[in-house]
Amino acid sequence: MSSVFLLPSALVLSALVWLLLSTSPSDPVLPAHVEGASTSTAHGVPIATAPQAPASSSQPVLSVPTPKRSFDNAPVVVVGDREWRVLGARESVDSGKTQTVLVLRDEASGQLHYRQSALRLVLKEGEDYEAFIRERTQARRVFVNPLYGDIAVDAALISAEYTALVNDARVSQVMFIPLPTPAKPR
Question: In this structure, are strands 112-123 and 149-153 parallel, antiparallel, or unpaired?
Answer without folding.
Answer: antiparallel
